[in-house]
Design brief:
This protein is mostly helical. It has helices spanning 24-40, 46-53, 66-80.
């Protein structure tokens, strides 16, 4: 929670940040780096990763673990640069 007692904003796939087009080569590099940083935290189970990334069960474009969408955006920003905004 932030200092105002509010929950941090949870990203969803409908967020404009996820509408950026990338090449298949960039998508592969993003996938590799994302899994690499996920495993660096000790969360190396493929089943756990897929569960955290699960989207269908929520139906709202959210993730089983909303922090994973934010982590993916961090990796995308590192590899592809800024998203054209102040974040």
């Amino acid at each position: 929670m932030d200092v105002m007692g509010k929950l941090p904003r949870a990203f969803k796939l409908s967020d404009p940040k996820f509408q950026r087009a990338v090449t298949l080569a960039d998508a592969y590099r993003l996938l590799f780096r994302f899994v690499e940083q996920y495993n660096a935290r000790g969360e190396s189970s493929t089943a756990n990763l897929l569960g955290d990334l699960s989207l269908e069960i929520w139906g709202d474009g959210g993730s089983g673990d909303p922090a994973q969408l934010e982590d993916f955006l961090v990796v995308a920003r590192e590899l592809l640069g800024a998203f054209g905004d102040a974040s």
